[in-house]
Write a structure and sequence with these properties.
The chain is of the alpha+beta class. It is 25% helix and 23% strand. It has three helices and six strands, in the order E-H-E-E-H-E-H-E-E. A six-stranded mixed sheet has the order 1-6-5-4-2-3. It is globular. The two termini are 28 Å apart. 32% of the residues are buried.
């Protein structure tokens, strides 16, 4: 038997005020769109803002459906919209913020597994990493320089 060691590096910002200005702007966009999420079943609202290499900012939020799992997460809503409207553009930054309606979310909330796979597809497609910042409503903000930190064994098309 052999073992491999996998390490990830995550940067931590204590407040939104510590973020670079362009990321702070994206965080405000993500917070604003989070408030418009449609989440009547989970009462858990998620907002995302993407910054593309063409200068565009794309936002998305989660959209639930009584027929689980027919809803769509905020990350995939934004990524798929960016892919459909700006297919040649690269996603440079993704900012995610999440919060529950019945309590204050203080832990950074990363993308779910399905969203990690969707983000991985775009990193592979564009041949460059996506900076991912994620937070709760309050507290620290985590930053990953690439989805590979969050999903080290990515499934891609190399074996298809």
């Amino acid at each position: 038997m052999k073992e491999i060691k996998i390490e990830s590096t995550i940067s931590i910002y204590d407040t939104i005020n510590e973020l670079p200005e362009e990321v702070s702007i994206l965080m405000e966009e993500a917070i604003n769109i989070r408030k418009k999420a449609y989440a009547p079943y989970s009462s858990f609202l998620v907002g995302v803002a993407l910054f593309l290499d063409n200068g565009k900012i794309i936002t998305g939020n989660n959209q639930e459906n009584a027929s689980y799992p027919s809803g769509l997460c905020a990350e995939r809503t934004a990524v798929y919209y960016a892919g459909s409207q700006y297919p040649e553009a690269k996603i440079l930054k993704m900012v995610i913020t999440a919060g529950a309606l019945n309590k204050i979310t203080t832990q950074p909330i990363p993308p779910c597994g399905a969203c990690r796979q969707a983000i991985a597809e775009y990193e592979i497609k564009q041949k460059s990493p996506i900076e991912i910042y994620f937070s709760g409503e309050k507290g620290q903000i985590f930053k990953s320089n690439s989805l590979k930190n969050l999903l080290p064994f990515m499934f891609d098309n190399s074996e298809l």
